[in-house]
Design a protein that fits this description.
Blueprint: E1 4-8, H1 9-12, H2 19-29, E2 33-35, H3 43-52, E3 56-61, H4 76-93, E4 97-100, H5 111-132, E5 135-139, H6 155-165, E6 170-175, H7 176-182, H8 186-193, E7 197-202, H9 219-228, E8 234-237, H10 245-256
Parallel strand pairs: 1-2, 1-8, 2-3, 3-4, 4-5, 5-6, 6-7, 7-8
Helix pairs in contact: 2-3, 4-5, 5-6, 8-9
């Protein structure tokens, strides 16, 4: 089975191009899905254009905010309410996963205490996610370059949270670019943790740009390895093209069309 590819439309939408035209082109190329970071004023237009062209909305953010997240117990009431609302929206529109964040490291809190706090926060809402059929995907991000202080910055840490919650709907958003910066060994790590992965993001490293010969990741091999695990959700492209946006979408799809 070939992997199902998604594009993050805020990045790949050329100036002056409608969502309808962008999604028509994406579908023509072979994309199965699109994704958004939030639910802005253009969300109804996004939903309508995706449905018109037979594209799934693969992912959206589930709560506020990236640096102020689940590792702080005082946030749990707020995040539970926000996630409940997001889960309802995701279930309504067939969105398979919403993104969650650990938050930045807290003074005087150990890694293990933070794992317990995140797990307790997710455990509160996991039954509702199970009932509605929506994944809670905690994002793995690098704390070295892009998100200083972010706590869920290694796959072992995120997997430990998932193991503690032990819900089929609590998973990880495995961002390949971010994990290459923090730990490398991408294919082996994906294979070891695939049961906990509910979504992927891609980008070339260094630079978070195109998957060309200026960066160090072999995305054809990575995508082939993902397909071989039997993973049946989405691999979303979240890089910043250096040139023409549509040309970048075409090149990336062909490179990652592995099975």
């Amino acid at each position: 089975m070939r992997i199902k590819q998604s594009m993050c439309y805020p990045i790949f939408r050329p100036q002056g191009m409608s969502l309808d035209e962008l999604f028509r082109i994406g579908k023509e190329i072979g994309y199965a899905a699109v994704e958004c970071w939030g639910r802005g004023d253009d969300f109804p237009e996004l939903v309508a254009a995706a449905q018109k062209h037979g594209l799934v909305i693969a992912s959206m953010c589930g709560h506020e905010s990236l640096p102020d997240g689940l590792n702080k117990r005082s946030n749990h009431d707020r995040i539970e309410a926000e996630l409940r609302e997001s889960i309802d929206i995701a279930a309504k529109y067939g969105i398979p996963g919403v993104i969650c964040f650990s938050g930045n490291r807290q003074p005087f809190q150990s890694d293990l205490e933070a794992i317990d706090a995140c797990a307790d926060g997710l455990r509160r809402i996991a039954p509702y996610a199970e009932e509605r059929g929506v994944n809670l995907n905690m994002e793995l991000l690098n704390s070295k370059v892009d998100h200083p202080g972010y706590q869920c910055d290694h796959s072992w840490w995120g997997a430990a949270v998932c193991e503690k919650v032990n819900s089929p709907r609590v998973k990880l958003l495995f961002d390949i670019y971010h994990m290459q910066i923090m730990e490398g060994d991408i294919i082996r790590t994906i294979r070891a943790n695939i049961k906990w992965i509910g979504h992927f993001h891609t980008a070339g490293n260094p630079g978070r740009n195109d998957m060309d010969d200026t960066q160090e990741l072999n995305y054809a091999g990575i995508c082939r390895a993902i397909a071989a695990t039997g993973y049946n959700l989405y691999v979303g492209h979240e890089f910043k093209p250096k040139g023409d946006l549509i040309a970048a979408l075409r090149h990336t799809f062909a490179l990652c069309d592995q099975g």
